[in-house]
Amino acid sequence: MPGVNELQAESGGRRRGWSGIASRAVALTVGVGLVFTTAVACADESTTGGQVTLLTHESFELPESVIDGFRRQTGLTLEIVRSGDAGQLASTVSLTPGAPKGDAVYGIDNTFASRPIEAGALESYESPLAVDGADEYAVPGAADKLTAVDRGDVCLNIDDAWYESRSLTPPASFRDLVKPEYASQTVLTDPATSSPGTAFLLTTVGALGDGWQDYWKRVVGGGATIVSGWEVAYNQMFSAGEGKGDKPIVLSYASSPAATPDTSALLDSCFPQVEYIGILKGTRNSTGARKLVDYMLSPEVQSALPESMYVYPVQRDVELPEGWPARAAVPEWMSSLPPATIAENRESWLDQWRDAVGR
Questions:
Q1: Which of the four, 110, 161, 172, 329, has the lowest number of CB atoms within 10 Å?
Q2: In degrees rounded to 5, what are phi and psi of residue 294?
Q3: DSSP H or E segment with residue 150
Q4: What integer pLDDT is reported at residue 155 of this predicted model?
Q5: Which fold has domain 4-152+273-327?
Q6: Domain limits of the chain?
Q7: Nearest to 344 by CA among 140, 154, 116, 114
Q8: What is the pLDDT of residues 144-181, one digit of tens each?
Q9: pTM of structure
Q10: Please, which pLDDT band fits residue 259 given cuts at 50, 70 and 90?
């Protein structure tokens, strides 16, 4: 795993339904996922009957026993409301500062963290448990606004079995996608609507410098497909995904091969992704939301993250599933862009990307 300082410099979507990998759906569909209605206890005087509402992305998945552990420990019920991808989630939260649709939000990552912070949509809180590792991934200058929960790496994935069955050689680097034979075999995600898409755009900006726009022109000109989000790309179009599509190259995560046999990640194409939990300003249950932040850093949740959402926990000394590090390789090199640089340039980079790909 990269060092602490390296990650902070590099940082500024996988995975649901693990019959395959969880979705990073982009459509802004809000649904109540799990509602536990047993044993209620009061938190704040303004609480809504001892309930804590967590807004999260479509990829959120933890075992029911772990979710129910929050009720057992605190007496509070937990309502989970899923809302699209991390980018959609950040936008939803940023548009409602002081009038939130829930009490806490989980799943905003380092590529979008600046939006709710600058919008004033988050309440200050520093969990006492963060000293065990989470604080090493804090957003610089805003450690009290978002608390790190997990980390992973967005990378291109290869269906090795597809290439082997055709006696073809797969790409060795993300740079190889400029070749039409590889470009036409690739499905990527739109950085305007997908957090993995944003991460890969940042990979190209950080690794290629002034040549990144030409790279995208050549990749798209060679026949690469760009879709709205991870769910469509991986589970529908990727040849090794649930839908058994016709694209053997897809944008996903370095950890995805741990769930999908005969696939691998191009480890020179990666960008680090850290996911956070924060308390929404204007929450009616601030006390309950703080307890939820603490619970997300607990051993119960941290140890469940690898097999539930195929990400690494941020807390130190959390035991990983047997063989998991070997199947979910950690890149030795990743594209590096400071958070302030991402926040300052994101919109202009998106405009330049649209020009480059003709969207």
A1: 172
A2: -60, -40
A3: strand 147-159
A4: 95
A5: D-Maltodextrin-Binding Protein; domain 2 (3.40.190)
A6: 4-152+273-327, 153-271+334-352
A7: 114
A8: 999 999 999 999 999 999 999 999 999 999 999 999 99
A9: 0.79
A10: confident
